[in-house]
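User:
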Amino acid sequence: MVYGVYMAASRTAEKIADAAQAILVSEGAGAVTMRRVAETVGVSAMATYKHYPNRQALLDAVAERAFRELAEGWGLRCPDGPWEERALGLMEDFLDFALGRPHLYTFLMTDRRERARRFPDDFAGSGSPAFTRLVVVVEDGMRDGLLRKDDPLEVTLTLTSSIQGLVQLYLGGRIGLEETGFRQLCERTVRRILDGIRA
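Assistant: Predicted structure:
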């Protein structure tokens, strides 16, 4: 009996997080309210508070699950190919995410959040699954003599921050290119950076 109650509560918590994430993806974090999520799920507003004590706790749960989902599909485009193809494949994965779900991208990557990961401490080890995959590629490049020896975390930050900056400009309407042209600009940018850090 207790197990059944626990499973029902767990399913309700998942439904609440699902609804919050769907609203966030389509409209942005500002549209996520406890009342709206409750209405979407079909429970009372007070019922949401049994699972998430406040809106911030709900958004934190959405962030954690979104990062897990992203990590599961990240780096599959070219997992075992040549080094440069792996690096560019990760860039394409990032652009698929940023351009395909801009509200979620903004929430996870640029909105100020209390529990957001911070460089460098939260990025060391496997603190950021998507970032970690690129760190591994950078470390492989250094080990194989393709890149100059340097701090892998900082080199990875150099690669990712340039593309994130371009994405911010693009989403803000400051780059007047269609998506295909924008993706080509990102690839040229990464290649220029790689040319600067090659061994």
